[in-house]
Amino acid sequence: MKKLVLLFVGLTLISCSNSEDDQNSDDTTFLEKYDGYGFESIGESADEYFFINNSIEFLKYIDIDTREDDNGDDRVYCEIWREGTFPGGEDGDVTISIISNNSTSLTVSVIYGGSETIVTLSVDSTGSTLTVTLNNDEGVDILTFTKTNVIFTSLGCQ
Question: What percent of the chain is helix, strand and coil (3-state, nearest 5)?
Answer without folding.
Answer: 20, 45, 35
